[in-house]
Amino acid sequence: MLKSIHSFLRRCWIRIKSDWLYAWHNHTTRSMIRYFDWPLFLIVIGISLFGVVCIFSATSSEVTTAPSTIMEMLETQSIAYPRLQLIWLLAGIGAMCVFIFLPYLLFKRISMAVYFLNIIVLLFTLAIAKAGRGAMKAFLSWGNDRGLQTSEFGKIAIIIAFAASFSALHKPIERLKDSLSYILMLFAPLVLVILQPDFGTAMVYIAIFSVMVFVSGTNPKLIWSAILAVALFALTYWVYMNTSASSSFRATRILIWLDPGAYPDDARQVINAQIAVGSGGIWGKGVISPGSFASLGYISDDHTDFIFAIVCESFGLVGGCSLVLAYVLLIGRMIHLALRTTERFGSFLIMGSAAMLIFHIVENLCMVIGLTPVTGIPLPFVSYGGSNMLTNMIAIGLVESVTMRTRYNAANAMRTNLGTVNI
């Protein structure tokens, strides 16, 4: 027994040493930095800084007259949440730089280790996390109001694991039995997230998987079968919500979506958010304005999940449309980079990251304006929250790593070919 354990640990050490040496010998060099995709990064930073301003507006206190200068705003209003968001943004940029420094193919080598580490972390969270709103056990907390949502980082693990699996396929999946291993891979983390219970994050996992299945060229009949399976899953989850301890919390969200007027007290958040969206008009009321929904605290979670209502109230139709346009440019840029990537694993990494952001954006915007039920999904780079900011910036780091190395290798190949022609 001891001999087997010793042999297992020795193999693990050899593998860790091998991966460490691979990362060290293939890390980003100064010559690769010139291929950094600045348009993608600048779009992300622009959206993030705009988000800090919106968080400042959402957490403002009531005023009788609008401040005349920026200094007056800063002197009379709390900057606690905007300051924390800036700190998380800087931490996210640091995390992005780490993932840019590492060769992205390293994550293909360690994809299964990342996957199982995610399973362990989710199990650990489920075991020790304290139950919060809706009986949800999703945060590893410390202090009075600090914590990390581990299922957020699980999105990156899901992207890496499925990117490695689908990129290894020699031909598209044609039969159901060929897809069972991938479904089981999704099933394990999905069940752990549902048990927290966090249906919003579970839907993100499904969205990432679905897009990567589609991109892999899977048989369309299997895709339609998967859509039917998701519908059956949703029905099963509805039954679970109505028989679990959190039923009154989650079932009510769907009932509110179907008929908000029938639940005036429970639907106050959604109704006020829609009023705030319309009250901004064309140009908005401004960051700090008397009688705004933001300053009066009429919308709960207005600095997190319902931040888009504050965007429209403060900056109007112009601000809301500008943010949507920025997201379109961001996603369009990511898809463009994925199509320009010749290596399959890198292309799947970018498409998985894009799928994660697309679902967050569409679901959050539709949730605020009442097109979908409230799910507690934040708006990327805008909503307050460290876990989501770190996760999104790590995804951008992966995209930049793939892009830089793809361009660097293409430039080297071109120089080699030119040298051969000259000879």
Structural class: mainly alpha
How many β-strand stretches?
A: 2
Could you spell the SSE succession in H and E letters? HHHHHHHEEHHHHHHHHHH
The first-to-last residue Cα distance is 62 Å
Biggest sheet, spatial arrangement of strands:
1-2
Which runs of at least 5 residues are low in confidence (pLDDT < 50)? Answer: none
Strand content: under 5%
For the biggest sheet, the summary is: 2 strands, antiparallel
| Count of helical regions | 17
Mass-distribution shape: globular
What is the CA-atom radius of gyration, in angstroms? 23 Å
Proportion in helices: over 70%
Mean pLDDT: 85
Characterise this structure.
The protein is mostly helical. It contains 17 helices and two strands. A two-stranded antiparallel ribbon has the order 1-2. A hairpin with a 3-residue loop joins strand 1 and strand 2 (about 145-150). Helix 16 packs antiparallel against helix 17. The longest helix is centred in the C-terminal third of the chain and has 37 residues, at about 385-420. The mean pLDDT is about 85.
Short description:
This protein is an all-alpha fold and 423 residues long. 71% of the residues lie in helices and 2% in strands.
Which short descriptors sum up this protein?
423 residues; mainly alpha; 17 helices
